[in-house]
Amino acid sequence: MKILVTGAAGFIGFHLAQRLLDRGDDVIGLDNLNPYYEVSLKEARLGQLEGRPRFRFVRLDLADRDGMARLFAAERPQRVVHLAAQAGVRYSLTHPETYVDSNLVGFLTVLEGCRHHGVEHLVYASSSSVYGANTRMPFSVHDNVDHPVSLYAASKKANELMAHTYSHLYQLPTTGLRFFTVYGPWGRPDMALFLFTRAILEDRPIDVFNEGRMQRDFTYIDDIIEGVVRVTDRVPQPNLAWDGAAPDPATSRAPYRLYNIGNHSPVELLRLIEILEGCLGKKAQKRLLPMQPGDVPATYAGVDDLMRDVGFKPATPIEVGVQRFVEWYRSYRKS
């Protein structure tokens, strides 16, 4: 298959491109290499991909409408996995325009490319942040998610709505994946595990928000990729039992689906730090801080639908995943 992976120099996109190439797919990797975090890490990920047979890299901004239209017309991918986005909850408090350009305008160019060029299936990254003010646990894709608490979350919810519109109007099969706190080798420097590891090794204090009482459904990268690949291979069909009098947010009469991909095992932030200290052989200097605007106290993925439809649920223990991250981090920083 020929598959377009947007955000191919990003954390999840890089791992996905590797997996697809390993199984023999042709991969067009798109990224704009923006400086939200150190470009050298993105270039190092790309260095693992470039030169491999069946991989081609295209440097392009999603908001470049003409460029995106030309790309789809020239490459005509069979499937698209759209992972490129402006990430980060806290960054959205200070740079809201960036989220509109990347996550809304950029998503529209992807939808239009899929619509006009016969793409068989669009899989796109949503986020656990869409659950916002919801408190019923575990989070279910069948619950209403109309109360986001950050612009980042609102942009991801908007993506789900935009995708449904294209599934309904143009019969474009779309699947949204709500990722839960992804971590692992080649991870993002703006996320807690990377920040904590770097600071502890450099003898600097770490900022621990909500005094470490936050819980996150940390999900190891290999589990995320397994879920993405299985979902990409399963083109959604209309749910003929869908009832407009009692609408199910996760399905539709259109070819549209939503899934959570999370470890369904929340871990308190202080426990993560404890595991990390054990792996590093070094204690953290903790600076306990209050909850930040836009954050939520806990995330917990319900994954019954994912298990039912593609026969998979994440299961990597946090102790195993953190150890693998630390081993990668030590090796990467020496290179």
Question: Care to describe what's here?
Answer:
The protein is of the alpha/beta class. Helices cover 41% and strands 16% of the residues. It contains 11 helices and 13 strands. The protein has helices spanning 11-22, 39-49, 65-75, 91-94, 96-116, 151-170, 192-201, 221-232, 269-280, 304-310, 318-334, and strands spanning 2-6, 26-31, 55-59, 79-82, 121-127, 174-179, 182-183, 206-208, 215-216, 219-220, 256-261, 267-268, 286-288. The strands form 4 sheets. It has a 7-stranded parallel β-sheet, sandwiched between helices. It has a two-stranded parallel ribbon with strand order 7-10. Helix 9 (269-280) crosses helix 11 (318-334). The longest helix is centred in the first third of the chain and has 21 residues, at 96-116. The radius of gyration is 19 Å and the shape is globular. It starts with a strand and ends with a helix. The relative contact order is 0.14. The model has no long low-confidence stretch (mean pLDDT 96).
